[in-house]
Design brief:
Chain B: It is an enzyme of class 7 (translocase). The complex is a heterodimer of chains A (about 110) and B (about 200). Chain A is mainly alpha-helical and about 110 residues long. Helices cover about 75% and strands about 5% of the residues of chain A. A two-stranded antiparallel sheet of chain A has the order 1-2. The relative contact order of chain A is 0.13. Chain B starts with a helix and ends with a helix. Chain B has a two-stranded antiparallel ribbon. By secondary structure, chain B is mainly alpha-helical. Classes of the chains: A mainly alpha (about 110), B mainly alpha (about 200). Chains A and B meet through strand 1, strand 2, helix 1, helix 2 and helix 3 of A and helix 1, helix 2, helix 3, helix 4 and helix 7 of B.
């Protein structure tokens, strides 16, 4: 396993991916606007992509870069279905605040 | 650790570019989750995606950098911004930048510098692609051809394509089915039922 990718230490890139993942988790936890929660999920998926590409380059194996496309496709599908759900919920509740979605509470 | 940092500052411009794009990624990601206005968050997310594309470019994954811009910064962001516009929760405050010309000029300068650094990130390696450590190392992927044994796919795009269609053909097809189901589900979820339309008409009248 190479410790450097084009002069960049692998540990730095993994640290950046960890920071990005933590920011995404923080956004999911602290924000109440449902669209911004979706954006935070996109940040999390992007950090995972960064880790895949890093290990693909460090281990000199192409499979990691292939799997990034599957992650991108699943992110696109998630965004399509999730935003359709947002619109359907907004039509009923007139709000995008997740605190006000209590209809499944019992 | 200090030796590593010193050596890299000396030897490779790609390390400096990585520091820049990493900083931009973290700052704009923080801006995504701490901005009050969702539209400003969306614009920050576009910058995050572009900075990540720059990092992929520095690492030599050119095809993934392209797909990052096309799929994330293009398709998904258009979807999110459309939904934000449809919901239109408050009067948008982007026009306040017009009232502060200095801020507008500074942001435009930042965008311009960002573009040129992205450009240099993608071109630092390509003219020197033969030199080890300076340019992109050629990715090779050997795949079997009937009768001739194995041959090599040279370059990033050819390698990723060969790996997708030879090793991961079944997952690729299943992803296409998943996308079809997701599109159908989105249409069914977001369409208005006919009875609802009639009811709203009655309410309006």
């Amino acid at each position: 396993m190479n410790q450097f990718i084009n002069g960049i230490p692998v540990s730095y890139i993994l640290g950046l991916a960890g920071i990005l993942f933590s920011i995404g988790v923080l956004g999911v936890l602290i924000r109440r606007n449902i669209v911004i929660i979706f954006m935070s999920v996109e940040l999390i998926l992007n950090s995972v992509n960064l880790v895949f590409v890093t290990f693909s380059k460090a281990l000199s194996h192409i499979s990691g870069e292939t799997i990034v496309f599957f992650v991108m496709a699943i992110a696109a599908a998630e965004a399509a279905v999730g935003l359709a759900l947002v619109i359907a919920i907004f039509r009923h509740k007139k709000s995008t605040n997740v605190d006000e979605l209590q209809s499944m509470r019992w | 650790m200090d030796e590593i940092i010193y050596m890299n500052f000396e030897s490779s411009p790609s390390f400096l570019l990585f520091i820049f794009f990493g900083t931009v990624t973290v700052v704009t990601a923080l801006s995504v989750i701490f901005q009050k206005n969702p539209v400003v968050s969306a614009v920050s997310l576009v910058f995050t995606f572009f900075a990540l594309a720059g990092i992929y470019g520095i690492m030599g994954a050119l095809f993934i950098a392209t797909m990052q811009v096309l799929v994330y910064a293009g398709a998904i962001m258009v979807l999110i911004v459309f939904v934000l516009m449809l919901l239109s929760q408050r009067t948008e405050t982007l026009s306040r930048y017009r009232k502060h010309p200095i801020r507008l000029v500074l942001l435009s300068l930042f965008a311009l510098c960002f573009f040129f650094l992205l450009y240099s990130a993608l071109t630092t390696g390509v003219p020197h692609s033969e030199q080890k450590g300076k340019g992109y190392e050629l990715t090779e992927y050997s795949f079997p051809i009937q009768g001739t044994g194995t041959i090599n796919a040279k370059g990033n795009v050819a390698s990723v394509g060969a790996s997708t269609y030879l090793d991961y053909l079944l997952p690729f097809e299943m992803i296409s089915i998943l996308l079809l189901v997701a599109v159908l589900g989105a249409v069914i979820l977001a369409k208005k039922r006919l009875t609802e339309v009639e009811q709203t008409k009655d309410n309006v009248l």
